[in-house]
Design brief:
single chain, about 200 residues
Length: about 200
Amino acid sequence: MINRFSNLLCDFLIELDMISYEDKHIFVYAFFLIISSVFFFSLTIFFGLIFNCIINCIVFYISFRAIRHFAGGYHADTEMRCEILTTLSFLAATYLISLSEKTVVQIIALVGAFLSTIVIAAFAPLDTPAKPLDEDEKRKYRRISLIILSVIVSVIIGSLLFKIQLLLVPCCLSLLLEAILLTAGKIKGHLVATG
């Protein structure tokens, strides 16, 4: 859906002589990134409105996108599957965020964040056949991933110490979702390599 819209937008700009046909693939990719970011951010806010936790959802979205961008992880085989899985993941995270005042949810989120920190530190960055990383990129992305991970963990610890409910569960869930995606990506890569 987003890719098709990006292509239509580029075709329109080509007709207006605003971009050249030779550069279309660059613009399609750029528009895809921009539109998908705006779409999923808007979706997160929409879910936040439904569950009455907009600010918490924005915290989740920003922390998740930051770690996901550099740590990598599972990528769906089709754009439609990606959009569906991302929507369901964000919906589940938003629902859990809406329950974040419950102690049991906080404990589960903290345990999940602790285990997720180990997984992210072990697996990040995870490249894909579609976007392989050379050794320099792996070192750079690993360093950045660990810095972002450290910042998110520091925010979690700070939110515990200062009892800032607004940050605790959203940051924990961002790490949990990223760890799930890294693990799924690792399994998928192993299956492709051995299959």
